[in-house]
């Protein structure tokens, strides 16, 4: 049974940093793209970052370009999202996902990020 477990969410002040982690277990994941989505209250789900199965191509949503970085440790089956210069609009529930093409195959349970002074 595949499990994705996110961690690292917290409450930080504007301008602060957080690193989210997503640990996968229960299968092999070399054929999946990894991604992080977020959903803020009253808004739809948004793709924040995506990393290709080979780890050589990353795509970042425009609002986070230059501030967030996605990476992966294949030995640990863990995805990371380094978030710097956090803004109030980054407050959301962040979800990890494993994808094939445009379809999400597995979801994590989410971790809450709150940016507030």
Description:
The protein is mainly beta and 117 residues long. Helix content is 0%, strand content 54%. Strands 2, 4, 5, 6, 9, 10 and 11 form a 7-stranded mixed beta sheet that branches. A 4-stranded antiparallel beta sheet has the order 1-3-8-7, with no helix packed on it. The radius of gyration is 13 Å and the shape is globular. The termini are far apart. The model has no long low-confidence stretch (mean pLDDT 94).
Give me the number of helical elements.
Answer: 0
Q: What's the gyration radius in Å?
A: 13 Å
Structural class given helices, strands, pairing?
mainly beta
Number-wise, the strands total: 11
Short key terms for the protein model shown above:
globular, 117 residues, mainly beta, 11 strands
Quick rundown:
It contains no helices and 11 strands.
Write the layout of secondary structure elements.
Blueprint: E1 3-7, E2 11-12, E3 18-25, E4 33-39, E5 45-51, E6 58-60, E7 68-73, E8 78-83, E9 92-100, E10 103-107, E11 111-115
Parallel strand pairs: 2-11
Antiparallel strand pairs: 1-3, 3-8, 4-5, 4-9, 5-6, 7-8, 9-10, 9-11
């Amino acid at each position: 049974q595949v499990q994705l477990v996110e961690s690292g969410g917290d409450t930080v002040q504007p301008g602060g940093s957080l690193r989210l982690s997503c640990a996968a277990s229960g299968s092999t994941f070399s054929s999946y793209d990894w991604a992080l989505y977020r959903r803020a209250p009253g808004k739809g789900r948004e793709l924040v970052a995506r990393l290709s199965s080979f780890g050589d191509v990353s795509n970042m949503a425009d609002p986070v370009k230059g501030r967030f970085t996605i990476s992966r440790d294949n030995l640990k089956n863990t995805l990371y999202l380094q978030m710097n210069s956090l803004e109030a609009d980054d407050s959301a529930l962040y979800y990890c996902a494993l994808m094939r093409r445009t379809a999400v195959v597995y979801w994590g349970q989410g971790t809450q990020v709150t940016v507030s002074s």
